[in-house]
Write a structure and sequence with these properties.
The chain is mainly alpha-helical. It is about 65% helix and about 0% strand. It contains nine helices and no strands. It is elongated and about 55 Å long. The protein starts with a helix and ends with a helix.
Length: about 250
């Protein structure tokens, strides 16, 4: 492995690790389990294990999607006469910026304080402050029936619904890491998978017992755009590595 390839692998592992950690901190990876677990009287252990099962599904789907993107990327790169190693940094930059823009425009915010939910397009403005008159107010894209225990679906159905939402940010990272061998690719995938699963389970178990005490900072609404920007920054770093190595 050349110095440039080693630096590229290090950058890819770092990007996968940061994606696994930072993206999982976004409340839609753990807050649904805490809200529903608290409403239904689940223990921290049960809530955590449901979230872990969901995390495993989430990771598996993300990896499958990334590997499919890798196969498609190989075909596309071959067609245009470029290697994935050359195209990878540009994919990271473009994809990261587009994801950041999409998540910024999508909107939506989180504020755990009760059991009422609405989206960013609910038709009225809300400051995000609970206030004394609306202690039940919760800003979170979720299903009211789940939280109010109106749904007949069980814990594992919740795990399926939340987990069946792959992380597309892994795709350009896997594509950029191609060419360094199976061991290197495995390191990249594990760097994403392990923190994602552990954080989903751990945060859900902790939050179900501490939900009322959790105060998410106002900046939490920017975590998804920042995740995309981090991927774009990694692309810039990899591009600089290629230029210096060349």
């Amino acid at each position: 492995m050349t110095g440039g390839s080693g630096a590229l692998l290090t950058s890819s592992v770092g990007a996968a690790l940061l994606t696994g950690i930072f993206h999982t901190l976004i409340p839609d990876h753990w807050l649904p389990f805490a809200l529903i677990g608290r409403a239904r009287g689940w223990s921290g252990w049960r809530t955590g294990w449901v979230a872990v099962a969901s995390g495993i599904l989430h990771v598996m789907l993300s990896i499958v999607l990334a590997l499919l993107a890798l196969g498609a990327g190989r075909s596309t790169a071959s067609f245009w006469g470029e290697t994935l190693e050359q195209a990878g940094p540009y994919l990271l930059i473009v994809f990261g910026l587009l994801y950041a823009l999409w998540s910024w425009r999508k909107g939506g915010h989180f504020h755990p304080g009760g059991d009422w939910v609405h989206g960013a397009d609910a038709g009225h403005h809300c400051s995000g402050d609970e206030g004394p008159s609306h202690p039940e107010h919760l800003h979170y894209h979720a299903d009211e029936g789940w939280i109010r225990n109106k749904s007949s679906l069980g814990a594992w159905a919740l795990a399926l619904l939340v987990g069946a939402n792959p992380c597309v940010l892994l795709m350009p990272i896997v594509v950029a890491a191609d060419g360094n061998g199976r061991v290197a690719m495995t390191a990249v995938l594990l760097s994403y998978a392990i923190p994602t699963i552990l954080l989903m389970g751990g945060l859900s178990a902790f939050a179900v017992a501490r939900l009322r005490a959790i105060k998410l900072p106002a900046g939490v609404r920017f975590m998804e755009p920042v995740s995309g920007l981090l991927v774009a920054v990694v692309g810039v770093v990899v591009l600089l590595i290629h230029r210096l190595a060349g």
